[in-house]
Design brief:
The protein has 6 helices and no strands. It is an all-alpha fold. It comes from Paramecium sonneborni.
Length: 364
C-alpha cells in the first residue's frame, strides 16, 4: 500500500511538472519524504517526528502556493492593465478607421460627381464658344452684306438724282438725251443690285418714250418723267430706310445674343473654376483621409496582434496557475492521506506490540 501511494504521488507531481515546466527538485521531493518516513518507521521514531516530516512538506507546498498567488495576482493586474490599454487602442483605431473610411468614400463619390459635372460644364463651354464664334462670323458676313447693299442703295439714289438733274437741264434746253441714256445704264445696274427692277421699270419706259420724242420736246412728258423719278426716289429711299432699320434690328439682336452668350461663357468659366477648386480640395481630402485610414489600419492591426498575444499569454498564466494550484492541492491531499496511513500504521504497530507484550506476560 505504501508503494502504491508513493507511485501515485510521483505520477501526480510528474504530470504537473511536465505540463507546466514546474521544477520542484530544489524545493522538495515526495520520494525523499517517503524514504525518510519509511526510515523513521523502521527506526521506530516517535509519531510526531514522522508527522513533522509530512508537515514540513505540506508547509513547503503552502509556501509555494502563497508565492505563486502573489506572482499570479501581479500577472492578473498587468494583464487587466494591458487588456484595457489594448482594447482602448483597438477601439480608437477602429473608430478612426471607420470615420476616415466614411470620409474617404464621401470624398471619392463627390470627386466622381464633380468630375462628371466638370465634363458636362466643359462640353457646354465649348458648345457656347462655338456658337459665339458662329454668331460672330455670321455677324461679320451680315455686316459686309449691309455695307455693300447700303452702297448699292446710295448709288441708286445718286443715279436717280443725277437723272432728275439731267432731266431739268433738258427742260431748260441745255441738256442732252444722250446723258439720259448714260444714266439709264447706271440706274439699271443699281436696280439689279438692290433687286428693285420692278420699281425702276416705269421710269425706264418713260425714258424710252422721251428718247423716241427727242425731236419733238413735250414739256408735259418731261414733267411726268420728273414726277416718276420723284416717286421712284421716295420708294427707293423708303426701301433703304426699311433695310437700314432691319439691319439695326439685326445688329441689336446680334448684340443681345452675343451678350447672352458672353454671360453664359463667363458663368461656365466661373463654374469650371469652382469645380476645379472643389476637385483640388477633394483630392487633398482623399490624400489626407487615405493617409489617416492607412495609419489607423496599421495601428489597428498592430494593437490587435499585441492584444491577441497578451490574451494568449494571460490565458497561459491562468492555465499554469490553475493547474499548478490543483497539483499542489493534490499533493496536500496525498500528504493528508499519507499522514492518516502513517498514524494508522503507527497505531497498528503499537497494538501489535501491546498484544505481544500481553502474550509474553501471560506466558510468564
Amino acid at each position: 500500500m505504501r508503494v502504491a501511494l508513493c507511485l501515485l504521488v510521483i505520477l501526480a507531481v510528474a504530470s504537473a511538472t511536465t505540463k507546466f515546466n514546474l521544477d520542484y527538485s530544489k524545493k522538495r521531493s515526495m520520494t525523499a519524504v517517503m524514504a525518510e518516513v519509511e526510515a523513521k518507521l523502521k527506526n521506530k521514531s516517535p509519531l510526531d517526528a514522522i508527522l513533522n516530516v509530512l508537515r514540513d512538506f505540506r508547509d513547503a507546498v503552502n509556501t509555494e502556493q502563497v508565492n505563486h498567488d502573489e506572482i499570479y495576482n501581479i500577472q492578473v493586474t498587468e494583464c487587466e492593465s494591458e487588456d484595457g490599454f489594448r482594447r482602448g487602442e483597438v477601439t480608437d483605431a477602429s473608430n478612426v478607421l471607420r470615420d476616415s473610411t466614411a470620409a474617404l468614400n464621401v470624398a471619392q463619390t463627390s470627386k466622381i460627381r464633380a468630375t462628371n459635372q466638370q465634363e458636362v460644364n466643359q462640353q457646354q463651354y465649348f458648345s457656347a464658344q462655338e456658337h459665339l464664334n458662329s454668331v460672330l462670323s455670321a455677324a461679320e458676313t451680315e455686316a459686309g452684306y449691309f455695307k455693300r447693299r447700303g452702297r448699292d442703295y446710295e448709288d441708286a439714289l445718286h443715279a436717280i438724282d443725277e437723272a432728275s438733274d439731267i432731266l431739268a437741264t433738258i427742260y431748260s434746253g441745255s441738256g442732252s438725251f444722250a446723258e439720259i441714256s448714260r444714266v439709264s445704264k447706271s440706274m439699271l445696274q443699281t436696280a439689279f443690285n438692290i433687286k428693285e427692277t420692278a420699281k425702276f421699270a416705269p421710269v425706264f419706259y418713260a425714258f424710252a418714250q422721251l428718247a423716241a420724242q427727242e425731236g419733238q420736246l413735250d414739256e408735259s412728258a418731261l414733267e411726268r418723267v420728273a414726277q416718276l423719278l420723284e416717286t421712284l426716289r421716295a420708294n427707293i429711299q423708303e426701301a433703304y430706310n426699311d433695310f437700314t432699320e432691319s439691319n439695326a434690328v439685326s445688329v441689336a439682336a446680334f448684340n443681345d445674343q452675343k451678350d447672352r452668350l458672353g454671360q453664359t461663357i463667363a458663368r461656365l468659366e466661373a463654374q469650371n473654376e469652382r469645380l476645379q477648386n472643389k476637385l483640388d480640395s477633394l483630392n487633398q481630402q482623399i490624400g489626407t483621409q487615405s493617409a489617416i485610414a492607412q495609419t489607423a489600419s496599421g495601428k489597428l492591426q498592430r494593437n490587435q496582434q499585441l492584444w491577441d498575444q497578451a490574451q494568449a499569454l494571460c490565458s497561459t498564466f491562468a492555465n499554469e496557475y490553475n493547474y499548478a494550484t490543483q497539483a499542489r492541492r493534490n499533493e496536500i491531499q496525498l500528504v493528508a492521506q499519507l499522514e492518516e496511513m502513517v498514524e494508522a500504521r503507527f497505531n497498528q504497530v503499537e497494538d501489535e506490540n501491546h498484544e505481544r507484550n500481553q502474550r509474553l506476560a501471560n506466558q510468564a
